[in-house]
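Below is a filled-in request sheet from our internal design queue. Each sheet records the structural input a requester submitted and the sequence that came back. We keep these sheets so that new team members can see what a complete request looks like end to end.

REQUESTER: design group, bay 2
PRIORITY: normal
MODE: inverse folding
CHAIN LENGTH: 421
BACKBONE (tokenized):
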């Protein structure tokens, strides 16, 4: 009977399947009953990784592991935020959001062309990954819907994300497309990251969310009004990080400490041991300016990756003798930064660059070194190299100051999120 129903479901037109899904949800029943937050302690992170392992083992998409946890190099990065749902003290669901960086995404291995297309268009990408719901709660749509609402608000308001992407099983596409306007990209593959399970790449332009959900929610009852749920109602159980001002340009909420990296990825799993030399160098580079890795095996002996660039966001101005050009910072290193701008600038031009970073203002001499036409990882713009040492020591110190909370091991306070605009 189940196979027969599955066959009948597949032959229905996608618009009918998606309409059935929209009318089967209930956003008023138990949404708000559960606490949803960023995992910020060893217990919460381990609980998320163990839940993910159990869920993926049942589906046959992860190999057996004596640790009983599923985690990988992306979860060891400062650019990954692990989100959990809790029923009392029990972790009942988890999902991760990965901010784009020099390291890239898990999906880049097979969908690099698709991701780079969005990068070249100027979108700021984040990837949704590692979704799992406890077996006893899987029939409760309120949890999945609450997680997706939290992810959308967190990615857009805390990561400045303008494009969400994910790699999912094809059968889940109607859920993501019908409720959140995700689009399919590229072809179906056998995804090694999920034990060669079938997978497709999907993406969602976050600027379309309000209009799309308003359209599908017009003249529908309150209990299935997805637009009202996301954009007009508070969800009592949502707690978001209380950002200190210095982290705003970085758009990250790191919770890892050297001790946590050692416990989770060396002592309890073999993530760092099994990582390639290139992967270890990338992880080392991502953390190196901020925390002391001398006590973390495998990372402490890995050389930093050359020219590693850190994702940032904020306005910048290039001051030439005859004009001023305004643009947006995209990434930064100790040697320079990338400025996205539609203006035309001559290479090798000398200028001063003015920008604010982590509550500090910088005005530094610079040279325009290279042009990016809007392909590969960046939108259109220019690579600007800092000249001399003026301001470099201050910039280095600013980079190190961003993770004071992680260095001291103090938990970051969580506060409820205000009503959506």
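RETURNED SEQUENCE:
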């Amino acid at each position: 009977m189940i196979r027969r129903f599955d066959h009948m479901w597949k032959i229905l037109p996608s618009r009918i399947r998606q309409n059935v899904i929209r009318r089967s949800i209930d956003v008023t029943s138990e949404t708000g009953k559960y606490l949803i937050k960023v995992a910020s302690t060893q217990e919460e992170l381990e609980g998320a990784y163990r839940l993910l392992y159990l869920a993926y083992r049942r589906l046959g998409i992860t190999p057996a592991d004596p640790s009983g946890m599923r985690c990988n190099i992306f979860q060891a990065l400062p650019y990954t935020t692990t989100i959990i749902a809790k029923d009392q003290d029990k972790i009942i669901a988890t999902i991760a959001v990965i901010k784009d960086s020099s390291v890239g995404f898990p999906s880049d291995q097979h969908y690099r062309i698709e991701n780079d297309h969005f990068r070249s268009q100027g979108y700021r990408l984040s990837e949704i990954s590692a979704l799992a719901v406890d077996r006893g709660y899987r029939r409760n749509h309120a949890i999945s819907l609450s997680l997706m609402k939290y992810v959308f608000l967190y990615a857009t308001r805390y990561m400045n994300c303008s494009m969400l992407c994910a790699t999912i099983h094809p059968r889940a596409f109607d859920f993501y497309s019908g409720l959140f306007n995700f689009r399919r990209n590229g072809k179906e593959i056998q995804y090694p990251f999920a034990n060669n399970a079938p997978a497709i790449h999907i993406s969602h332009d976050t600027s379309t969310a309000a209009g799309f959900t308003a359209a599908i929610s017009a003249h529908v009852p309150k209990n299935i009004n997805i637009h009202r749920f996301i954009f007009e109602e508070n969800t009592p159980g949502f707690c978001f990080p209380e950002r200190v001002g210095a982290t705003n340009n970085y758009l990250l909420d790191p919770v890892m400490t050297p001790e946590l990296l050692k416990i989770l990825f060396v002592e309890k799993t073999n993530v760092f041991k099994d990582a390639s030399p290139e992967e270890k160098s990338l992880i080392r580079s991502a953390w190196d300016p901020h925390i002391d890795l001398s006590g973390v095996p495998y990372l402490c002996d890995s050389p930093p990756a050359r020219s590693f660039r850190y994702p940032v966001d904020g306005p910048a101005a290039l001051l030439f003798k005859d004009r001023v050009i305004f643009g947006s910072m995209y990434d930064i290193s100790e040697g320079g930064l990338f400025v996205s701008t539609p203006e035309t600038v001559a290479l090798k031009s000398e200028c001063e660059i003015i920008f604010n970073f982590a509550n500090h203002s910088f005005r530094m001499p610079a040279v325009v070194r290279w042009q990016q036409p809007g392909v590969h990882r960046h939108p259109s713009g220019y690579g600007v190299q800092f000249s001399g040492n003026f301001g470099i020591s201050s910039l280095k110190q600013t980079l190190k100051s961003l993770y004071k909370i992680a260095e001291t091991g103090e938990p970051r306070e969580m506060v409820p999120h205000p009503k959506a605009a």
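SHEET NOTES:
- The longest strand covers residues 360-372.
- Residues 2-42+73-247 form a domain with the Aminopeptidase fold (CATH 3.40.630.30).
FILED BY: M.R.
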